[in-house]
Amino acid sequence: MIDTKDHILKALLAGDRKSSSQQVTKLLESGLSVKDIYEYHLKPALVQVGELWEENKISVATEHLASAIVESLLNEIYVNISSSTKANRTVVVTCLENEHHQIGARMVSDIFEMHGWEVLFLGANTPKQDLVNYLKMMKPNLVAISLSIYFHLPMLEETIRLIRNESKKLNILAGGQAFTRGGQEVLQKYDNVKYLSDLDTIEEYLKNYKE
């Protein structure tokens, strides 16, 4: 595996989109899977960017630019995402209300698509009642909710309760950077709600998925 994490981080902090793109191209040409590029190169770089921002070592502007570059990289990588089979299943992927970081959710969406799922990606800051109404209308097999801020955990639980009021059986996945600080016990109170920590566990879940 080509170790380009440091190069990508340096390019992101410098706002160098061209260099970032070149590093990702090298990884693709080396034969590395899209999932591994996401999990072991782009995600660690983004986590470090976030940590630097929390420590006041970089500005909000630098953090925003780095995030924007990574989103552009996901757009470039998307042409490499394909599935020869269709799972005949639908997932709604969304970020919790007041959550404005959608990159992790986008990566999750791509993993589902690579496994043949139809993906309905709602993006950042989806109001909880709008989400519930959309799920009622679309009737997906599964909903995946991203949570990056630990203090939004009560909002996640409220959203789960609203979903459960409409559907007792809809499978719910939750994940995101917030859970590195805990909170998995909240999910254990509800049936058919599962925490998945990373893209590797999501892929394993999809390989063994049963209704």
* Number of helical elements: 9
Number of E-type strands = 5
Average pLDDT taken over every residue: 93
Helical residues, percent? 40-55%
Shape: globular
Using only C-alpha atoms, the radius of gyration works out to 17 Å
Tell me the distance between the termini: 35 Å
Provide the spatial order of strands within the biggest beta sheet: 2-1-3-4-5
Order of H and E elements: HHHHEHEHEHEHEH
Main sheet: strands, sense, barrel: 5 strands, parallel
Provide the β-strand percentage band.
5-15%
Which structural class best describes the helix and strand composition? Answer: alpha/beta
Give unreliable regions as ranges.
none
Could you describe the 3D structure shown?
- The chain is an alpha/beta fold and 211 residues long.
- Helix content is 53%, strand content 12%.
- The chain contains nine helices and five strands.
- The protein has helices spanning 5-14, 17-29, 34-54, 60-77, 103-114, 128-138, 153-166, 184-187, 199-207, and strands at residues 90-95, 118-123, 142-146, 171-175, 193-195.
- It has a five-stranded parallel beta sheet, with helices on one face.
- Strand 1 (90-95), helix 5 and strand 2 form a beta-alpha-beta unit.
- Helix 1 packs antiparallel against helix 2 (17-29), helix 3 runs antiparallel to helix 4 and helix 6 packs parallel to helix 7.
- The radius of gyration is 17 Å and the shape is globular.
- The protein starts with a helix and ends with a helix.
- 33% of the residues are buried.
- The model has no long low-confidence stretch (mean pLDDT 93).
